[in-house]
Design brief:
By secondary structure, this protein is mainly beta. It has strands at 4-5, 9-15, 19-27, 36-44, 51-57, 68-74, 80-86, 90-96, 102-108, 117-118, 120-121. The chain has a single domain, classed as Immunoglobulin-like (Sandwich).
């Protein structure tokens, strides 16, 4: 996917229906060799107990310069919004296991919703 320009916080995507979807998130891959590469797993079930967003850095973080923070929130129309915060101007979605369930937004926001839940780094 073509890199998308980001301001600090953004509504990245919406998961439209119940599923398990994995995707790769990359930063700085066009600028320097020291980038961030993380796999993100979104588990979205009918019941709220089956909703989780987890991520794992595939390239070990050698420095704390690049921020990558993910949050999620279930909407009133039973979709799942995925939010991202990064201080890197370029964040790319390199691949996804099921694009049919994802709706890419890339909408810049000033603040995360107050009831958004932090994704878990594993």
């Amino acid at each position: 996917m073509v890199p998308v320009w980001m301001n600090a916080k953004c509504l990245l995507m919406t998961v439209s229906q119940e599923c398990v979807v994995n995707f790769l998130v990359s930063t700085r891959h066009t600028y320097v060799a020291q980038n961030t590469l993380a796999v993100v797993q979104v588990m979205y079930g009918v019941d709220d107990t089956y909703i989780s967003v987890r991520y794992h850095h595939l390239i070990p973080k050698s420095h704390q310069l690049i921020l990558l923070k993910l949050k999620y929130k279930k909407t009133e129309d039973n979709r799942l919004n995925i939010y991202i915060e990064s201080n890197d101007p370029v964040v790319s979605i390199l691949s996804a296991s099921d694009f049919s369930r994802l709706e890419f937004k890339n909408e810049v926001i000033k603040e995360f919703p107050q009831d958004a839940i932090d994704a878990v780094e594993v």
